[in-house]
Structure formats: C-alpha cells, structure tokens
Design goal:
The chain has about 140 residues and is an alpha+beta fold. The protein has three helices and six strands. Belongs to the thioesterase PaaI family.
Length: about 140
C-alpha cells in the first residue's frame, strides 16, 4: 500500500506546475483503497458567489484518479486519460472540496475509475466523474 507521503510527493513529481498550483493535499486514505484529496477553497478557482469552477473540479478529479492508480499499483505507471465524463450535481461555494477517487478495474493496458467531489464542510456530493485511462 502506498502511503500519504508518497502520494503527496507524486503531486510534485508527476504533475504540471498549473496542477500543483491547485494546492491539492492528500488526506488520510480510505480503507477500501480509495484516495482522498482536499482542494482548498481559493478565489483564484472561484466564479461569482465563491462557486468553484468546473475546470478546477475536472482537473482535481483527473489528478486524484492518477494518485488512485499509483496506490493501486504501488508505484507510478505512465498513463493517459482516454475518457473523463463529468456530471455537475450542484454548485460548491465557499468551502474546500474533498475528492475521493477509486479504481474500479485495472488491467494490463486499461484502467477504469470513479470519482466523487463533495463539500468538505457539508459532505454533499457536488460532482461525479467516471474515467478511462490507457496504461502506457
């Protein structure tokens, strides 16, 4: 099992500076093998009324799934996003987001996962995503 320190370091080691600028932090991992990230509330990522923009949610979801794959395999494996399908359920305003990513299935060449974004304060789900990755 990959620890929080290793996953946090992966955010610096494998992601572009603009993804690092999101300020994602790895939270204590879930027992079922999921990865949990915190996206701090930021005016730079907010639209009017303090609502978190969808682009930031999608980037956080994609990033969380790569970390979930690292946890699943016990190491980084090069991969690329083939599909990211996102449904925005409701706005998230003036609070941090928690992003929980879970690998559903990972084979030799493809991996599939699901992500839930929810408010850190109220726990309400605001965005759901499903992903497909090509493992290189």
């Amino acid at each position: 099992m990959t620890d929080i320190t290793t996953l946090q370091a992966a955010l610096t080691d494998y992601f572009a500076p603009w993804v690092q600028a999101l300020g994602l932090r790895v939270e204590p991992t879930q027992p079922e093998g999921a990865v949990l990230l915190r996206l701090p509330h930021s005016e730079q990522l907010a639209r009017s009324g303090g609502m978190l923009c969808g682009q930031a949610m999608m980037a956080a979801a994609d990033t969380a799934m790569v970390l979930a794959l690292i946890r699943h395999f016990g190491e980084f494996r090069p991969c690329t996003t083939v599909q990211l399908s996102t449904s925005f359920l409701k706005p998230l305003s003036n609070q941090d987001a928690l992003i929980e990513a879970r690998v559903l299935r990972a084979g030799k060449t493809m991996a599939f996962g699901e992500i839930d974004l929810r408010g850190a304060d109220d726990g309400k789900s605001v965005c759901r995503a499903s992903t497909t990755y090509a493992l290189l």
